[in-house]
Amino acid sequence: MKPWAPQKGPQKAFVTSEVFEVVYGGARGGGKTDAALGEFARHARRYGAGARGLLVRRTRIALEPTIERARQIYGLEDATWNLSRSCFSWPSGAILYFRYLDRDADADGYQGHAYTRVYIEELTQFPDPRPLDKLKATLRSAAGVPCGLRATCNPGGAGHNWVKARYIDPGPNTVVTETFVDPFDGARLQLARLFIPARLQDNPRLLANDPGYVARLQLCGSKELVRAWLEGDWNVVQGAFFDRWSSRNIVRPFTVPRFWTRFRSFDWGFAAPFSVGWWAIASDPWPAENGTIPRGAMIRYREWYGRGERMGEGLRLTAEEIAAGIASREAGEKITWGVADPSIFRQDGGPSHGERMRRMGLNWRPADNTRVGKAGALSGWDQMRARIAGGEEGPMLYVFDTCRDFIRTVPVLQHDPGRPEDLDTTSEDHIADETRYACLSRPLPAPEPPPPARRPEWDWEAMRNQGKTNNWKTM
Q1: Is 464 part of a structural domain of the chain?
Q2: What is the pLDDT of residue 375?
Q3: Half-sphere exposure at residue 228, Cβ-oriented, CA atoms within 13 angstroms
Q4: Is 320 domain-assigned?
Q5: Which of 50, 225, 232, 385 would staple 143 via disulfide (CB 3.0–4.6 Å)?
Q6: Which pairs with CB-CB distance under 8 Å and at least 24 residues apart come from 319-325?
Q7: Are residues 73 and 221 in the same domain?
């Protein structure tokens, strides 16, 4: 049999690219695993003993089908599998290790390693890019072999947000250059990256060998989910926790009536991001471009997301600095109440964050922090999902389209793999927590104010008879 060769199209573009960082992904069945394994086979043929690779997945069990497929491809290259070292070795001296990163801290153990290729399968299963950036820092070669990172992924997963922002949003087949800061030694490098989209039709071998593949996929999920699988649509999220979220929950900004109740919610963060949301409660139905906002609906009309330059990092602002920032943003508004993360009221040898913010003139009440309710009781997530879904009149939770961080993070959040009724807390869930506090704060609409008193009608005839009209004229 002939050694593995790429199929024409994006798979060939992936294995022949000389860009430092290449991500290949989108649809299921697009030939991504073959592309990663085959790319190293070509790399090993070309550079021999100088080719040293590392392939990682999130869990050990997820590695098993990849290793099985590698046996088939690398058997044609005379590479042998070493179970104790979990690697394939080539007669030329090339070697590819298979590892898993169960915890993000596992990446610290690779400090000092040197590879010419690092492969990351299912990139979106990693909630944070930092451990993968640490692996990127291992790419170096004393022999002068060109080094590079290669990754594959599908839409969805705990890391959907950061993967989409970093690789997909700049556009397909577009080389982007960014400054990479080595997490180990702080060195700054200019590195290029590229996203190559994969679609099912780009893998004719699969369609020819398994003609029932598409039909089976269509039995496994909703129309939207199947579209994400088949077309690699990154705007349709597989397994989303808030699966009823849609474009109808997003409205264009409008002037919120002054008599509507306004309040704010807050999730604390220092090293991690914090989130503040400002909410109005509709006191009467309000027209919007995609329907009518029902009375009692919550509208998120402003937000402040305290995120640093890197994913998962906060602005490291003090309680006083956050309080000042909130006060400046809501100057002149009547905020009826504020509900906050209960952790800000903890006292650890000094005044709590809540007390320090109160001294700045900002008052909070502790939020109901219920995540998953007991039998027969609605949880915080239940309340939030119910408001997002709404009823016949429409959703009961809306956000202005200017609340970009809400729209970027909340709709793509995933279920906790070990506790499906809860949210995956390893993802970027700060805005979701703050919104949950808002939903559990019993938001009720303010009554519409009575119309202004009308001027009493004048009895002109009686006044004329009493000689009080003089020369007045009717205007």
Answers
A1: no
A2: 46
A3: 20
A4: yes
A5: 50
A6: 319/344, 319/353, 319/354, 319/356, 319/357, 319/360, 320/356, 320/357, 320/359, 320/360, 322/274, 322/276, 322/357, 323/356, 323/357, 323/360, 323/361, 323/362, 324/360
A7: yes
Are 274 and 219 in the same domain?
A: no
Domain with 187, as residue range(s), is 10-231
286-341 tens-digit pLDDT: 998 878 999 999 999 999 999 987 777 899 999 999 999 999 999 999 999 999 99
How many residues does the structure list for the chain?
A: 475
Which residue is listed with tokens 């914090």?
274
Q: Are 50 and 116 in contact (CB under 8 A)?
A: yes
> Is residue 218 located within the same domain as residue 265?
no
Q: Across-strand partners of 191?
A: 178
Does 273 lie in the same domain as 297? yes
Interior/surface letters 422-451, b for 16+ CB within 10 angstroms, e for the rest: ebbebbbbbbbbbbbbbbbbebebeeeeee
Instruction: Indicate whether 226 and 255 sit together in one domain.
Output: no
> SS3 for 368?
coil
CATH number at residue 256: 3.30.420.280
CA atoms of 279 and 16, how far apart (whole Å): 51
Cα–Cα distance measured from residue 309 to residue 433, given in angstroms and rounded to the nearest whole number: 21
Residues 383 and 267 in one domain: yes
Residue 473: the pLDDT is: 47
Class of residue 317 by CB neighbours under 10 A (exposed 0-12, middle 13-18, buried 19+): middle
Residue 139, classed as helix, strand or coil, is strand
Regarding whether 170 and 56 lie in a shared domain, the answer is: yes
For 366: left if phi > 0, alpha if psi spans -120 to 50, otherwise beta; the answer is: beta
Distance from C-alpha of 267 to C-alpha of 406, rounded to nearest angstrom: 13
Query: In the β-sheet with 337-340, what is the strand arrangement from edge to edge?
Result: 250-251, 397-400, 298-306, 274-281, 261-267, 337-340, 365-366
